Hints:
By secondary structure, the protein is an alpha/beta fold. It has helices at residues 22-38, 45-54, 64-74, 88-96, 120-127, 134-148, 152-167, 183-186, 189-197, 208-212, 233-238, 242-252, and strands spanning 78-82, 99-103, 170-171, 179-180, 202-205, 224-228. It has one domain: Orthogonal Bundle (Phenylalanine Hydroxylase). The chain is globular and about 50 Å long. Keywords: Iron, Metal-binding, Monooxygenase, Oxidoreductase, Phenylalanine catabolism. Fe cation binds at residues 122, 127, 167.
Amino acid sequence: MTKGTEYIAHRADDTGFIHYPQEEHDIWRQLYARQAVNLPGRACKEYLQGLDALGMPKDRIPQLAEIDAVLQATTGWKTAAVPALISFGRFFELLANKEFPVATFIRRKEEFDYLQEPDIFHEIFGHCPLLTNPSFANFSHMYGQLGLHASKEERVFLARLYWFTVEFGILQPKNGPLCIYGGGILSSPGETLYAMESDVPERQPFDLLDVLRTPYRIDIMQPIYYVIEHIDMLDEIAKMDIMGYVTKARQLGLFAPKFPPKAKAS
Length: 266
C-alpha cells in the first residue's frame, strides 16, 4: 500500500486462499446488486458475455483461482494479487506477462460510488469480464509490452491511452446505443449513470493523438470520454504506431484541462 492510505490488502494463506471478514463480503454483495441493476442496457454485450462466463459469486468476494480458471481457458490470462497501487514498471511487467493486477481489499460503503484506489471490485467486476474477450485481452497484452520498454516520460503519455480505453472507454456501435466497456465506469454505480445519462461530460470520437494529449484526474467524474465503434477497434489501435504518436504528443503538448485544478490540502 502507498503511505497514508487507509486500506490494507489481505494476504493469501499457504494454500492461496484469501480470508475476508463477513462485512467485506457484504460490501461485495451490495456493490454487485447495485451494478446488476445499473448495467443491463448500459454495459457493452462483450462485457456482459464475460460476466456470464466468469460466473462470479454475487454474495461473496471471489477467490482469484476461481477467476483464473476461466481467464486461462479463454484468453490465457490470470490474475496477480497486488497491494493496491503499484509502480508503472510493475504494472507494465504484469500486463506483458498476461497477468492482471488485483488489489485484495474492498472499498468501504461510504465510497461506493467512486474510489481512487483500485479495489478488488473494480479489478474483478470491472475489468476481468472483458479479459475473456480476445480483442480486449490482446490490447491489454500489447499495452503492457509497450510500457515495459517505454521511458518514464513516455509512460506518462501511455497512461492516458489506458485511462481513456480500458478504464473509461465507451462504445457507440453503428445503429446501436451508447454502451460502456471501461472498467472504471462499470465498477462505479455513480459513474455508470453519469457517463450514460448525464449531459455534463463530452463524448468525443476516439483519436489516438487527442487521447494522448488529454489531461485527466483520478478523483472526479470524468469531464470527457472517448468513444470507439466496437470492441474490435482495440485490435486496430494496437496495430498503430503508438510510440510514434507518443513522440508527436510530447512535441505538441497537452490540451488545456477540462477540469479545475485539485485543491491543495490545508
